């Protein structure tokens, strides 16, 4: 199977209001499923935002109630859900927090990814992950390369995911104003240089000291924008055909022409 219907849910996030954010996400996931979405992507830390002042309350263990709830929803609706939450991990040395990207499929967490490049203030609160690896779906012949927000600026992340077999690049983000043009350029660039579809899901709305522009996009393997949101809350849906990737790569043989002996 090469075609898959993907929904990018662009939503506002109420800072530290987990119950309200999850309720909205569940409603929008239901709408996406009713339109045939098979893979559903939510923005970065969709359930809490960057709730720095209440990390202990906003965070959860990997088997916590938020991912359990999404797992039940995934199982019931036969859909795949991709996003991130604030993860807490306790040990004798204390508690560490991670920005945990996840992929839930058929009620099971198929793969996770701890954000490896925290941005600015995030460095004070989050421990960076140390593994970059794509997520192989079990029910479809598709592998997802997941990266988180600031990592859009690091072409090495997307390139590694591509070389490791990712079929679709997924970026979940809280990219703020005024960087809309930069966002659009980077989203297209990552698709063009790796010649693979790119689903870039950004939040909208505002926090007390930051505003967000949305502009979520789904871009094909040639870098063409297929669907794009404005600043309003919305659901983007597009049928991504990974079979088209091989055609793009045959016309311009970027990956074959790489000089791995030099870089």
UniProtKB/TrEMBL annotation:
<dbReference type="GO" id="GO:0016787">
    <property type="term" value="F:hydrolase activity"/>
</dbReference>
<keyword id="KW-0378">Hydrolase</keyword>
<protein>
    <submittedName>
        <fullName>Carbon-nitrogen hydrolase</fullName>
    </submittedName>
</protein>
<feature type="domain" description="CN hydrolase">
    <location>
        <begin position="4"/>
        <end position="242"/>
    </location>
</feature>
<dbReference type="InterPro" id="IPR036526">
    <property type="entry name" value="C-N_Hydrolase_sf"/>
</dbReference>
<dbReference type="InterPro" id="IPR003010">
    <property type="entry name" value="C-N_Hydrolase"/>
</dbReference>
<dbReference type="Pfam" id="PF00795">
    <property type="entry name" value="CN_hydrolase"/>
</dbReference>
